[in-house]
Design brief:
With about 600 residues, the chain is α+β, with helices and mostly antiparallel strands. It folds into 2 domains: about 140 residues, no CATH class; about 400 residues, Porin, CATH 2.40.160. It has a 16-stranded antiparallel beta barrel. Helix 1 packs antiparallel against helix 5 and helix 2 packs antiparallel against helix 7.
Length: about 600
Amino acid sequence: MSLHALPLICRALGRTGALALGLAIAAAALPSGLVAQAASSPLSENVAVNLINRLVKRGALTADDGAELIKLAEADAAAARSRNAAPSPAQEARQPVGDPAAGDEEAVRVTYVPEIVKAQIRDEVRQDVMAQARRENWASPRAFPEWTSRFEFFGDFRFRLEGDLLPAGNDNTGAFPNFNAINTGSPFDVSGNLFSPQYNVDQNRQRVRIRARLGTAITLGDGFTSGLRFGTGENNSPVTENQSLGSANQAQGGNFSKYAVWLDRGFLRYEVGTTAEQGLTFTVGRFDNPFFATTMLWAADLGFDGAVIQGRRVVADGLTAFITIGAFPVFNTDLNFASNQPAKFKSEDKWLYAAQAGATWRLNSDFEAKFAGAYYYFANVEGKLSAPYTPLTAQDAGSTDDSRPAFAQTGNTYMALRNIVPTVLNNFGAIDQYQYFGLASPFHELDLTGRLDYNHFAPFQLALTGEYVNNLAFHRHSVGAKAVNNLGAAPSAGGVGAFEGGNAAWFVGITAGAVAMRQRWDWNVSLDYRNVQSDALVDGFCDADFGGTLLGTNHKGYTLSGNMALAPRVWLTVRWMSATGLAGPTFRNDLLLFDINSKF
């Protein structure tokens, strides 16, 4: 059997090629005596012909394909006999004396194939067969059903050492109430002599934290895709998936107990008309941040709930325009609010409506710029004063209790929500002043973001990033009249200080080094500075690291960071963040983060 017949058989057999090749390889590997014996069978003098006939009988080949291959095999055999019919003088000289085949014209000559050549043939054919099997997905149909090819899994893990360093001089006299703790628990009696829940401003803390995430991207066909991701988190905070090891809260953690896993992403996406020059995408569910922005505005781990449309189009050589439009439910009122009253209160649903337009401009081979303008309209996120009433217990709800933020960090200006009427029942306001707090300002944010990349020394890159945000709905007089925090020093004992908050924020940063950690010793370093006034942004969605656990807005300061790869999918990160409060009592915080990151 000639070796070049094998590819012909493979092409004819298609998915049954593995069986044909396996038999052919076995025939090629037989000792010459056994091959001669097989050839002397009354079926045929050609092993390839016998092999093809067997495959036709088993249904692996059609009769027409088998007939064509037999013709080719017989032609090869005839050519081989013709070559062997007249041996050269050198071949005759090497013929052993007394060889019974020396003068037997009926004997079939089989050229000797060394074992090393046979092994090489087997390896090459096996590689070809497996490559074809992977392309056509028929190598192991029972082990890998067709639907599994639609799933692509990914994940990451981060181990963090964190040090919160609080220098001396911070105001620890009860000047930093934890409004989030108040609003997510029972209302606080402001008439009492007890301190409200307070943030730590004077004691250093160290934490060991992890973040683990596992997700899958699912191809559904005809432009549809879906995605799921699960992640850790010591609570349901929207801005971080960190889990502090040994931290006991919300019935998890501490004493080596297990930690919770949350649904972090879940969405359906449809792409239509997508080419190299344009694309249009519709996404619904819970998904990654679709907007071009820095972490000053949107935390890195923040997910968006709702629906978004994204489009892009090449409008000129090197210039691609893009647009993003979305509607996102921020808070949905409890169906039974207020649950302890037969007459219910009206809905306090909160939404974010957002639109962003921008462009990516490749100036030349060295410079590329990206810039965008966005408008973020938060509907009903500000607090509202309730209808007048007199709560007799902490459970007596006010009509606007649900206008308080469901999650907050710190920095925004707050107002009291309950319009409590002083009567004899509350000793004319001296007792039972159970209070919740809401945001004192509406938020309609105008955002401008830009980035300039210099790639002359690629893969080394130099990048400059900037962002400016202004809350157009902020009115100083109105906010200041309701404010219970972000006040300056009181002019006299028992007085109230002037409101010191503001509505603007800006960020500038520079990064040098590799764009991504793709191989060992890749590195980059960055330095940025930010100034974020109290009511420029909704503090519940900002960077969760800068300023430690206390600051979301109302701060200024810098971040110095560096990354270095230890392997293609493992890298180290070190960050130093130094923040100083703007409005209100004195506060400073330094944060040191050391991360070991991995992804797959």
